[in-house]
Amino acid sequence: MMYLKLAWRNMWRSRRRTLITVSSILFAVIFAILMRVMIIGIFDNMISNTVSMSCGYLQVHHIGYWENKSVDSTFEENPKLAAVLNQEKEITAWTPHLEAFALASSGLQTKGILVTGIEPERENMVSNLSQKMIAGKYLSDSDNGIMLAEGLAAYLKLKLNDTVVLLGQGYHGEMAAGKYAIKGIVRLPVPEMNKSMAWLPMAKCRDFLSTGARYTSVSIMVDDRNKLAGLKKRIVSQTAGDNYEVMTWQEMIPELDQLFQAKMAQNVIMSGVLYLVIAFGIFGTILMMLNERMHEFGILIAIGMKKRILSGIVVLEMVLMSVAGTILGIAVAFPIVYYFWVHPIHMGGAWAKESEQFNFAPIIQPSIAVSHFLIQGYVVLLIAVTLSLYAIFKIHRIKAIEAINS
Amino acid sequence: MKNTILTLFAIIGFTTTGNAQDAKEIVTKAENNIHGLSSISDMTIQIIRPSWTRAMSVKAWTKGEDYSLMVVTAPAKDAGTVFLKRVKEIWNWLPSIERTVKLPPSMMAQSWMGTDFTNDDLVKASSRIDDYTHKLAGDSVIAGRKCWKIEMIPLPEAAVVWSKVNMWIDQKDYLELRIEFYDEDNKLVNVLQGSDIKNMGGRTMPSKLEMIPAGKQGQETEIIYNSIIFNKAIGDDVFTTENMKKAK
Amino acid sequence: MRSIVVIAAVAIGLFAGMFMMAFFMGFVNQEIDAAVETTLSHVQIHNPAFPDDKGVSFTIDNGLAIVDQLRKDINVKAVSGRVITSAMISSSSTAAGVEVHGIVPADEKNISDISQDMSEGVYFTEGKKNEIVIGKKLAEKLGVRLHSKIVLTFQSKSGDLTAGSFRIAGIFRSRNSGFDESTVFTRFDDLALLLGTGTSMHEIAVLLKDGKMAGPVANELKHLYPTLLIQTWQELSPEIALITGIFDQLMYIIIGIILLALMFGIINTMLMAVLERQREFGMLMAIGMNKRRVFFMVLMESVMLTCAGIPPGILLTIGTVEYLAKHGIDLSSFSKALSQFGFSNIVYPQLQTNMFLPITVMTGITAILSAIYPAIKALQFKPAEAIRKI
What we know:
heterotrimer; B: alpha+beta; 13-stranded antiparallel β-sheet; globular; C: 2 domains; six-stranded mixed barrel
C-alpha cells in the first residue's frame, strides 16, 4: 500500500514527466489500433465484395449440393427457414437462388451458361445487382424477361428486347426449354462471369426447370464475419431434420480463404515492424526518464532505501502510467476510427478507376470491431510493462555517489 | 515326330484363329441385325428412380446407322419435341419455344431426355465392330436361349471409356441379349439387357431394353417397343432440320 | 546516452520504413509470379476472335514463325505455342467440360511451373503418345487415378464430333483448384492430329526476363502484328492487378503510420531529454545565450543525431533484406491456418534501391520535425527556476 502511495506521489511530483511518459504510450496505442483497423477494414471489404457476388458468407443448400450441383439436388421453399433467417440479428440480408447449367442460343450462336432464378428485391440487398446494370431495366418478380451478362449478350450478338432461347435439363430429367426477351444487360467485372451468366425472375426460372417451389441455395450476408461459426451452428440446430447443409465461404471458396490467410500472415509481420518502432519510442522515453531521475535515486539509496524497494516503486509508477496511457489511447482512438468508419477515405488515381470497374468502391473503411482496440491496447501495454522492467536493472547498477553527482 | 507336332500346332492355330474370326463375325451379324436398313417404330420409355417414375411415348424413324428421327408423342408437356441425328450431329426441335438447336459437344455427356442413356450413346462415337478385339468366352443361357458370351477389349487407340465389354449374343437369331460395361478396375458400371423376345415387324427381337446403372439401387431406364416396321422406304428428306418442325 | 537512443530510434525508423517496402514488393511480386508462372505468363497472343468463342478455326496466322521470332527477342525468357479447345472429358462414371491445352512439353516447362506441381506421376515422357495430365480435383471428380484411361470428345476443324482416348500420365495440384478442375494438358501433336489443325496454334504465351517489360513488349508486338490480339497479364487478369493496386496504396498508408509512430517516439524521447537538461539550458540562457541560438542548438543536435542514425539504419536494412532475400520469409510459420493449405508461401523481400533516397529523406524530415516541439519547450524554461531544478 505504501508502495502505491509513493508511486502515486512520484508521478504527480513531476507532472511534465508523467505526462510525457503517458502520452508516449497513448500515441503508441493509437497508432497500433489505426494500422490494424485499416488493414482489417480493407480485408473485410474485399471479402464482402467477393462473396456478395458469389456464394454469400454462409449458404444453405441441400446436402451434397455444393459437391455435385444439379437441379435434382434442390430443396423446397420453407417458411420455417425464412423465419429462422429473419430472426437472426447477425444476418443483414439473405436471398434465394435457383441455379442451373443451360445452353443459351440465339440462332446464330450457342453457349453453355449458368442461369440463376432470383428474387430481385432480395438479390439486390445481397449483391447490388441493379447497380451493375448498363442497359435496360432491373427485373421485377412478375417480369417475363431475362437479364444477360454483357459478354454473353455480345457473344450471342443480341441486344435489349431481342429473344434468347434457353435449353437445359430440368427437375427429374424433364426437358427444359424457354425463350425470353432480354430486359436488361449487366456488367460483371470478372471476365469469365461476364461471359456466362443470366438471371430470370424466380417464377419464370421454376417454370423453365419444372421444379415447382424449390431453391438450389440461399445465400446469406452477415454483419460480422467473425461470428459465422456461431451463426452456422444456430441455423443448423434450428433446421435439423430438413436435410440442409450450411457452409461458410471458407468451405465454399477455399482459394479465397487461402489468399486472405496469406495477407493476414503478412499483417503479422507488418505489425511486428510497427511494434518495433513503438517499442523504441517507449524505451527512449523510459530511458530518458530514468536518466533524469538519477540524482533523485542516488540520494534515496544513499540515505538507506533498499534498491529492491526503489525499483519496485519505479516499476509500479510505470505500470500505472502504462495502464493510464493504454486506456486513454483506446478512448482517443475510438472517435477517430469511428469518424473514418462513417466517412471512409476515398482513394484516387488509377487504382480508383480499376476498383470501380469491379464495383468495389475505392474506399478504405476501417473496421470498428471492439476486439481490435482491446488487442492492440493489450499488446502495447505488454510491451510497455516489459520495457519498464529495465528500470530494475538500471537501478541495481546505481553507484550512489556517481548518481548523486549526475 | 516333328511332323506330328507341327501338324498339332497348325490345327490348334487354325482352330483358335477360327474362333477369333467367329467372335468378330458374330458381333458383326448381331450389330447389323439391330441397325438393319430402315425402321419405323413406336415405343414407350420409362425412367425409373427410387423416388419417382416418368414415362414417355416416342415415335422413331431410322435409316441405317447414320440417320434417325425421334418424336415425343406423350406426355403433353413434351409432345412435339423432336430429335434428329445426322451421322455425328444431333439436332433438337422444341415446340414450346419454336426453335431448332444443334447440340454442341458439351451437351454430349448430358443424359438424353433424363434417361440413363446419354446423347453420346445416341450418336455412338465408337463402333462395337471396329474398335474392339473380340474373343469367345463360352456359352450361357439367358431367357431360355443359348447364347455366346463374347469378351470385347477396346483397341488401345479407341476412344472408349470402358476397359472391357461383355456381350451375350443369342445363337439362334443373333440377338444382343445382355451387354455388360466394365471400368478399368474391372468394376461393372452399366448393364444393357434385352428381354421379352417377340416377333415384331417380321423379325425376332427383344421388345424390351433396359439400361441399368450398376451402383445405383432402384434406378434404370426401360425402352419398350410397341410396334415396329422394318425396311419400308424412307426418303432422305425425312432426316432434315426442315422436316423436324413438321414431324408427327 | 540519449544520443544513442535518438540515433537508434532514427536507425530503426529508417529500417522499418525500408523493410516494409522491401517486404511489400516481395509480397506483391510473389502474388504476381504465382499467377504469371502458372497460367498467365506475361504476354499472350491470340487470334482476335478466339477469346470469346474458343472456336477451333480461330488460329494464329504464321504461329510458328512468330514463335521463332520471339525466341530470338532479348527480352524473352521463354515462349510456348499451344493448341486449345474445349472438350468433354469422360471416364466410365462421369463426364465434365474442360479446356484442353495441347502443348510442347519442352517449351511449356520453361513457361509454366505446373510441371513442378505434379502430385503424382510424370509430366510427360518423351516418345509416349496420347498422354494426358489432369488436375487432382478433376481426377477425384471423374473417379480416375494415375494410368487410368479417359476419353476426350470435341469438335474438329471440319465440324465433326471427334473423340480420342488418353492415359493419365500425371496428376497436378496447383494453388487454384478451379484451374485444376477445368484444365487438362496433352501433347500439341496428339491434339492437333485429332483436331485436324496441323501446325496451327491458338495461343502463344510469352514469359519475359523482366516482368515490368510486359507493357513495352506488348506494344512492340502490336506494331509487328497488327491483326493479332496481344494482351499483358494485367489485361488478362484484371483481378490480380486490382489486388496489387490496393496493396500499393495501403503501403503508403502503413509507412505513413510507422513514420508517425516514429515521430511521436522521438518527440517524447527528446522531450524527456530536454527536461533532463533543464539545468543546462537554464544555465546557458542565464549566461546570455539568446533563445534563438538555444533553439537552433537543439535542432542542430537533432540533425546530427539523425544523420548519425541513417547509416546504421541503411546497413541494418541491407543486411536483413539480403539475408531474407536468400532465405525468404515463410509466411506459413506466422499463420497456422495458412500452413494447412499445404502450399508454400515464401516471400522474398526485394531491396528497392530507388526508394532509399525518398525514405531516408522522409525519415530525416520526420526526425527533425520531431525535434521542433521539444526545442520550443526548451525555450520556455525560466533560467532562474531551471538552475535550481532537481
